[in-house]
Design brief:
Order of helices and strands: EHHHHEHHEHEHEHEHEHHHHHH
Largest sheet: 7 strands, parallel
Structural class: alpha/beta
Number of helices: 16
Shape: globular
Helix content: 40-55%
Number of strands: 7
Strand content: 5-15%
Length: 339
């Protein structure tokens, strides 16, 4: 009889989790009541909203819901609560290393400015890591809908706080807008400062957006990257270079990139040797957290426990974790297989 182990007990790293999107739905409701924010029914119903972002109108609706949720984070104690609860959820799902992604400019108006906002976030991450035991770091992400000069400012700030827990630099929002090359200087600043480069590409836009991340931004990881499956040459390039794709199956379906969970090409990427780190993306809006992404791989793509363990190893290898932490996590994965 084939053994089926509890994926929540499988040690893993979580490399694609957005800050506001990590919030518990109950917390959002409480904060909205606290500040008198009227939330649309899509955020009050207890079920994930129906989203389809493959057209401009759908993306606008997704972004509007996200912005409304973010508007409920107004005080340092709200930030602390969000970070702590995100850590608690990750620990329940077997995460032992979390790199949470945030654009601090989005929180700056309510937290006293850009630098105070980032410091509030980093303080919350540091406190939570010490109190919960979850290793947490921060990936600062620029918004590709804003001017590239803003991204350079953020990159310099991210490098400045590398000794406070910032480990990477990203580029988020609608990857169909603008050109990756417009942000090449910002990513050069981040890389020169020792940060990982992890821009979004290859979800709403096709394989060419992934190539842009590799060629123009020299990405160490690609946020999503799932549509590399449409280009055999790109699959080979990713496999040979060892660039990890942060694949988020539930969000791919929720945003309409694929119709069904079984359509997400996890098996195609895995069999091609492309490293993957499964991520939850925005659990608040997509309704599932980290362990569920592994369950999707098992249930809809017939991943064995040995293959799930390899996915966990790939997530660990793609982190900014120091060698001793990686070794400990990898040993924990072997222990899970021995259960």
């Amino acid at each position: 009889m084939v053994s089926v182990r509890d994926v929540r007990l499988l040690p893993k790293a979580h490399l694609h989790l957005h800050f506001t999107g990590s919030m518990r739905s109950g917390t959002l409701l409480e904060l909205a009541d606290k500040y008198g924010v009227h939330l649309p029914e899509a955020l009050r119903g207890g079920e994930p909203p129906q989203l389809r972002a493959t057209d401009e109108r759908g993306w606008f609706r997704f972004q509007r819901l996200y912005d409304m949720a973010r508007s409920c984070l107004r005080e340092p104690e709200d930030i602390q609560r969000l970070v702590r609860e995100a850590a608690e959820e990750d620990l329940k799902d077997g995460s032992r290393w979390l790199e949470i992604q945030v654009d601090p400019t989005s929180y700056a108006p309510r937290l006293g400015g850009l630098i105070p906002a980032l410091e509030v976030i980093l303080d919350a991450v540091d406190t939570t890591a010490r109190e919960t035991g979850l290793d947490m770091r921060v990936l600062v992400a620029a918004n590709r809908m804003k001017h590239p000069l803003d991204a350079r400012t953020l990159a310099r700030l991210a490098v400045r706080y590398a000794d406070r827990g910032v480990v990477g630099f990203g580029l988020s929002n609608d990857e169909r807008r603008g050109f990756a090359r417009d942000f090449d200087r910002a990513f050069a600043i981040a890389r020169d400062g020792g940060l990982l480069a992890a821009p979004h590409g290859g979800e709403l836009a096709g394989p060419s957006s992934i190539r842009d991340c590799l060629d123009d931004l020299r990405a160490h990881r690609v946020g999503h990257g799932v549509r590399a499956a449409e280009d055999p040459g790109l699959l080979r390039q990713l496999a040979e270079s060892g660039v990890t794709c942060e694949v988020c199956p539930a969000s791919n379906v929720a945003l309409g990139v694929y119709e069904r969970l079984e359509d997400v090409p996890l098996r195609t990427l895995f069999d091609a040797g492309v490293p993957m780190a499964l991520g939850a993306d925005d659990p608040l809006l997509f309704g599932s957290r980290l362990a569920e992404q592994y369950e999707i791989a098992r249930r809809y793509h017939a991943f064995t426990d040995e293959e799930l363990a390899e996915l966990a190893r790939q997530s660990v290898r793609a982190t900014a974790a120091p060698p001793d932490v990686r070794e400990k996590l990898l040993a924990g994965i072997e222990e899970w297989l021995s259960l």
